[in-house]
TrEMBL record:
Native organism taxonomy: Bacteria, Bacillati, Actinomycetota, Actinomycetes, Kitasatosporales
SUPFAM superfamilies per UniProt: alpha/beta-Hydrolases
Keyword Cell membrane: no
AB hydrolase-1 domain residues: 37-266
Name of this protein: 2-hydroxy-6-ketonona-2,4-dienedioic acid hydrolase
Keyword Hydrolase: yes
Length: 284
């Protein structure tokens, strides 16, 4: 099934929003009068990471965006740190009139969402951390992210993009050929090629260290928080998820078997049911 046929049971539109001067690609769907849910992808990702989640969440006002420097969103020429991603997120929310949202963040998106919950608690109704980054600095993992991404961007060989996407998944079949083609097109857009080092800047140890979510940050998250983790996550093992869960008061941890770094995609049916239950409870 195509990405777009998965979404098409729900009316949607893809448009560009001016977020304080940064053209931001966004997929909008659902009920504009309902509470907002905002989906944030991971490093070198794009909004199609949530294609299998849009229709299930259509009772809400849905926003899936390409984050700063990612996908087809604008790419200011500077290394991006968490404050840059967070500033862009808030600028987007302001531009579309979203005062607060249920934030669903995968990997880098979880890192940014957690920082939003700490620094701007009034903007975050609930928080989902899907294989979230930001609590550790593992040189091996950082090198794997940086090397696999730069190899795929530097070469037109689509198999390198395929390998980069499969790296995220417990089952290679989850990295569909359509997703590979979408990512390959993004990776080889001239603006993306020129800016790839900016979006990989958090794989630099010194920069990553000063952006990490420390225990004192996690302890300040008071919003309802759901941590979802794949047991085959290549970028973070289960003890990392447990520490994240224990560090956030009152949070809930769900471990997915036979799942890698994209639980919302790899096990969409299970994830969607879990997410809807969680958001519904958080929304009261």
């Amino acid at each position: 099934m195509s990405i777009w046929t998965e979404i098409s049971p729900t009316p949607f539109r893809v448009e560009y929003v001016d977020a304080a001067g940064v053209p931001t690609r966004t997929l909008r769907a659902g009920d504009p009068n309902a509470e907002s849910v905002l989906f944030l992808h991971g490093t070198s990702g794009h909004l199609e990471a949530f294609a299998r989640n849009i229709t299930a969440h259509a009772a809400y006002d849905l926003h899936a965006i390409d984050m700063l420097g990612h996908g087809y969103t604008g790419k200011p020429d500077r290394p991006y740190e968490i404050a840059d991603y967070l500033g862009h997120l808030l600028d987007y929310m302001d531009a579309v009139g979203v005062g607060s949202a249920h934030i669903v963040g995968e990997s880098l998106g979880g890192w940014v969402g957690a920082r939003a919950a700490v620094d701007h608690p009034e903007r975050v109704r609930s928080l989902q951390l899907l294989c979230s980054g930001g609590t550790v600095a593992n040189p091996e993992v950082m090198d794997r992210i940086r090397t696999s991404t730069k190899q795929a961007v530097a070469s037109d060989d689509i198999d390198l993009t395929r390998r980069r996407l499969r790296l995220l998944m417990a089952d290679d079949a989850s990295a569909t050929e359509e997703l590979v083609e979408v990512r390959h097109a993004i990776y080889h857009a001239p603006e993306f090629v020129a800016g790839v080092d900016n979006l990989l800047s958090l794989q630099d140890m010194e920069r990553r260290q000063r952006n990490l979510l420390r225990p004192e940050h996690l302890s300040r998250i008071t919003q309802p928080t759901l941590v979802v983790w794949g047991r085959q996550n290549p970028f973070g093992e289960v003890p990392e998820a447990v520490a994240l869960h224990r560090g956030i008061p009152g949070s809930r941890l769900e471990l997915f078997e036979e799942c890698g770094h994209w639980p919302q995609h790899e096990q969409a049916e299970r994830y969607n049911a879990l997410s809807l239950e969680f958001i519904g409870a958080a929304a009261g």
